Structures are given as structure tokens and as C-alpha cells.
């Protein structure tokens, strides 16, 4: 391995260091990771469709079945996070576990579990929305602004109707 020469300009040393790092850093198996993420995400979505079909089979409308399915998937992800299994599965599945609604549930529960030693209110309660809080705030503000713009500039009903 080539040694750094302190008499060389700093820019040359940086370039040599970057070349050495590029040679030594392992290349991630991108295609394998993509296939795993696609497969696992597809399995989660297939399971979700199976749950929707189950709820429709017991008499729920499609919208009610979809709502119940979301609740079941969020519960399962939160439960697996609580058991410490979600992170183990995500280590192999990658983004396939993180993209669907299950990733949102994991993102809410994981910080709360890490802070449980601080108590229910200041630990779990305060951390439960650490990730979801900003999403909810910006979602609500965006919805409010969209409604205001629609109200101000949207189509008007004819006068006298």
C-alpha cells in the first residue's frame, strides 16, 4: 500500500486518500437488495390484500375492510417492533419492510420503546410522535392551505341557486 508523503500538497493527499477508500469500501449488492425489497414489499401487500378479502368475506364493505386492514397491519408492525423482530426482518428485507404502512408503524413505535425508561408520559408519550408529529403537522397545514386556496380560487356556484 502506498504511503502518504507529507511533502505533497494537501489536495494530492486528499485525492490519494479518496482513491484508497474507494478501493477498500465493499460494494453493496444493489440488485440483490432491490429484489429482496421488491419481494418482501410484494409479500406484505399480498398479505394486505388477503386481509382485505377476509374482511370483505365476513361482510364488511370495501372501505371498511381497507380500514380494518390498515389497523391490522399497523398493529402487527408495532407488535413485531415491540418484540424486537421487526428490525431483524428489516435487516434482510431492506426497504421492502420500510415502504408500506408497516414502516410508518415501526417509525412511531421504535423511538417510544427506546424512551420507555423515562416513563410513560415523558418517555413513551413524548417520543411516540417524534417521527409522525412533523408528518401530521405538515399534512394538516398543507390540507388547510389547499382548502383555503380552493375556497378562494375554486369554482363558484351560480348566483341565485
List keywords for this structure.
single chain, 161 residues, mainly alpha, 2 domains, 8 helices, 0% strand, Stage V sporulation protein AC, membrane, Spore_V_AC, transmembrane
Give an account of the 3D structure.
This is Stage V sporulation protein AC. It comes from Ammonifex thiophilus. With 161 residues, the protein is mainly α. The chain contains eight helices and no strands. The longest helix has 28 residues, at 30-57. The chain has helices at residues 10-24, 30-57, 62-83, 85-93, 95-98, 101-114, 120-127, 132-153. Helix 2 packs across helix 3 (62-83), helix 3 packs parallel to helix 6 and helix 6 runs antiparallel to helix 7 (120-127). The chain folds into two domains: 32-105, no CATH class; 115-155.
Put simply, the count of helices is 8
Whole-angstrom Rg: 25 Å
Show unreliable segments. Answer: none
Please give the alpha-carbon distance between the first and last residues. 84 Å
Write down the domain tally.
2
H/E element sequence: HHHHHHHH
Kindly state the percentage of residues in helix.
over 70%
Q: Provide the residue-averaged pLDDT.
A: 84
How many E strands? 0
Main beta-sheet strand count, sense and barrel state: none
Q: Looking at the structure, what is the overall shape?
A: extended
What portion of residues belong to β-strands? under 5%
Q: What structural class is derived from the secondary structure elements?
A: mainly alpha
Amino acid at each position: 500500500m502506498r504511503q502518504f508523503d507529507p511533502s505533497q500538497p494537501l489536495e494530492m493527499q486528499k485525492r490519494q486518500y479518496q482513491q484508497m477508500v474507494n478501493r477498500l469500501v465493499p460494494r453493496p449488492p444493489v440488485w440483490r437488495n432491490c429484489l429482496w425489497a421488491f419481494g418482501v414489499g410484494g409479500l406484505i401487500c399480498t398479505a394486505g390484500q388477503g386481509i382485505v378479502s377476509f374482511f370483505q368475506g365476513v361482510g364488511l364493505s370495501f372501505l371498511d375492510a381497507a380500514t380494518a386492514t390498515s389497523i391490522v397491519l399497523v398493529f402487527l408492525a408495532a407488535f413485531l417492533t415491540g418484540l424486537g423482530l421487526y428490525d431483524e426482518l428489516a435487516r434482510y428485507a431492506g426497504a421492502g419492510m420500510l415502504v408500506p404502512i408497516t414502516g410508518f408503524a415501526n417509525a412511531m413505535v421504535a423511538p417510544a420503546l427506546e424512551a420507555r425508561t423515562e416513563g410513560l408520559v415523558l418517555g413513551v408519550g413524548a417520543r411516540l410522535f417524534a417521527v409522525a408529529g412533523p408528518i401530521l403537522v405538515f399534512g394538516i397545514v398543507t390540507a388547510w392551505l389547499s382548502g383555503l386556496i380552493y375556497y378562494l380560487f375554486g369554482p363558484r356556484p351560480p348566483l341565485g341557486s
